[in-house]
């Protein structure tokens, strides 16, 4: 029974996220909004972690297996990736530095506020 409840909670978050995207037409995947909803529910204490752990613990335990299809897909498109390697490296470096600067700025603001 606990497994069914956990699966239903995860599916509910997923489909609420997909429903929000369908209603609002925002350019964010519904699965991401569902994951954000799950995070908010867990971090606010409105959803006890024990309610989702029967499903999430096995998923986390076997997470490496879930990356195999993505890796095979990347290997299948190596030619396409190779032709855009400079753009990909540039975007990766730019986004990494932007994130580092943003986190540093937030940290300084928080330290000054405390």
UniProtKB/TrEMBL annotation:
Keywords: Cell membrane, Membrane, Transmembrane, Transmembrane helix. The keyword Ligase does not apply. It comes from the Bacteria. The keyword S-adenosyl-L-methionine does not apply. Pfam families: LrgA (PF03788). It is a multi-pass membrane protein. It is found in: Cell membrane. GO terms for cellular component: plasma membrane. The chain crosses the membrane at residues 85-106. This is LrgA family protein. It comes from Gallaecimonas xiamenensis 3-C-1.
